[in-house]
Amino acid sequence: MAREPRIAAHLGRPETPDEIAARKAESSRIYRGSQTFRNLIVALVVSLAVVAVIVWGVPRGEAPEPAPINVAVIAADAEETTGHDAIVPDAPDDWRVNSARLENGDVTTWSIAYVPTETGFLRLSQGFDADETWAARVLGGAAPTDAVTIDGVRWDVYEISDPEANANVSYALGTQAGADHVLVYGSSEPEVAADLAALVADQIDALATAEGTPE
Question: Which one-letter DSSP state was computed for residue 166?
Fold first, then answer.
């Protein structure tokens, strides 16, 4: 015996073929939509997992330390370029050298920048064929406030009243070395500047003697 069509509860009668087809089509649409959403969530989770592996799983070493600056080698190149003897302090091993270079301008300058272990910074600058007027320009127009003798070399003392207006330079020592003028300046304590001045006393004396300049 033929089976009678199932009565749809919401209709109170059997569904017509068109209604059956429409119901199945709607069910398929809902199913496909749920699958698409589920796939999207899965893809998002997978993407986050890949990012986590990259961020946390890939080894990252520290940046390599910069190569040490060989002041003596750079000074030799500066001497060959200028024909002047360049002062090279025998600085303590724990003083970091930030730069050593020849600077061109109205006065060609051999310059070394140090970071002593205590605090602040110190720069040694040798102005070739320069005098105290060059020193005043470097120090923002400052004038000597005193004088001091360190290991037989007489230095002018500069105490900068407004360091913030002068590249944070608060203290300087300056002396004539033959045809050149030498500055030791920065933000370190005066005692540290004096230590650097003492390290170059012999070289300053040699420059002065070579030029016939009295001490």
Answer: G
Structure tokens at 138: 């470097």
How far is 186 from 202, CA to CA, in rounded Å?
22
3-state SS assignment for residue 125 = strand
Structure-block tokens of residue 57: 């799983």
**Spans of the chain, pLDDT less than 50:** 213-215
DSSP state of 81: H
pLDDT score at 32 = 65
Rounded distance between C-alpha atoms, residue 57 and residue 45, angstroms: 17
Look up residue 123 and give its two tokens: 């720069």
Q: How far is CA 140 from CA 28, 56, 84, 168, 183, in A?
A: 83, 51, 26, 11, 13
Residue 174 burial (CB count, 10 A): 26
What would the pLDDT profile of 35-50 be if each residue is shown by its tens digit? Answer: 666 666 766 776 776 6
124: nearest Cα among 199, 210, 209: 199
- How far apart are the C-alpha atoms of 175 and 147, rounded to whole Å? 10
C-alpha 120/C-alpha 96 separation (Å) is 11
